[in-house]
Design a protein that fits this description.
By secondary structure, the chain is mainly α. It is built from 14 helices and 2 strands.
Length: 270
């Protein structure tokens, strides 16, 4: 239930991330101004330190481009969060408000769908998952942000998604990788759109690595061949076996750095 109650936070986080993607210098102050609310209050809401009022929620959602169903889910999640609070006097508007049980199911399902898609499509999500296996890992979003060169808000949202999906666990304030490897395998074979986005990002990171890291810390090879396309299924099988063998080798030693292995076999002719 708690995940459903915090749906309004996810909506705001996703909107802020979207705006930051278009303009990396976009600030919380600019976001709060666009929504017509105080930046300090909005920050408290995003950090789950303050539950917004129904009036506050209605003011915010009317400034976002959402359909009627999304608007209803947003308001419902605020009402649920308000009702859970130990208030001596529940506001009349909240007391009278009824949330349809079907809405709860839709909220949770849509939330999981959204978490699932973004966890697959953003390169840093499962990089964070792998980082938890480092001996010197710190469960600090600022540290993770600095290590990856990623905005801290993106790190916070990614961790929430991984926790929500069960890929990460929080034990005594520390993040640890879940042992549920079956679900992880399912994640890696997810939707084609999400995987395509991830593949593009990983290749962009490979280009960055050529400029950023010395040859001792990376291996980049390529080969141009005239092939028989009917052998592609066998080639895919060999590549898959190679990936597994490389993973087994490199993960058998001391885990002191997270790497990406990127293998591509594609046509050069139109």
């Amino acid at each position: 239930m708690e995940q459903v109650e915090k749906y309004y936070i996810k909506v705001l986080e996703n909107e802020l991330l979207l705006r930051k993607k278009k303009n990396p210098s976009y600030s919380m102050r600019a976001f709060s101004k666009a929504l017509g609310v105080n930046s300090g209050v909005l920050s408290l809401v995003l950090n789950a330190k303050r539950t917004p009022s129904l009036k506050f929620g209605e003011k915010i959602i009317d400034k976002l481009s959402v359909d009627m169903e999304q608007r209803q889910r947003f308001i419902d999640s605020i009402v649920l969060a308000q009702k859970k609070r130990s208030l001596q006097r529940v506001p009349p508007a909240i007391k009278k408000y009824k949330v349809d049980s079907n809405t709860l199911g839709k909220l949770k399902f849509r939330e999981l769908q959204n978490d699932y898609y973004h966890s697959v499509s953003e390169w840093y999500c499962f990089t964070i998952f792998e980082m938890t296996k480092l001996k010197d890992f710190k469960s600090c979003t600022k540290w993770i942000s600095e290590q990856l060169g990623v905005d801290e808000l993106k790190v916070k949202v990614a961790i929430k998604r991984l926790l929500n999906l069960g890929f990460l666990e929080e034990v005594n304030g520390n993040y640890k990788a879940s042992q549920d490897q079956l679900r992880l395998t399912e994640m890696y074979t997810a939707t084609s759109v999400a995987r395509r986005n991830k593949q593009i990002q990983i290749r962009e990171k490979a280009i960055e690595a050529i400029e950023e890291f010395p040859i001792e810390k990376r291996s980049m090879t390529s080969m141009t061949m005239c092939i028989d396309e009917e052998l592609m299924p066998e080639a895919r099988k060999l590549i898959s076996e190679f990936n597994e063998a490389m993973s087994k080798l490199l993960e058998s030693g001391n885990k002191d750095k997270v790497y990406a292995l990127e293998v591509g076999l594609f046509p050069l002719q139109k």
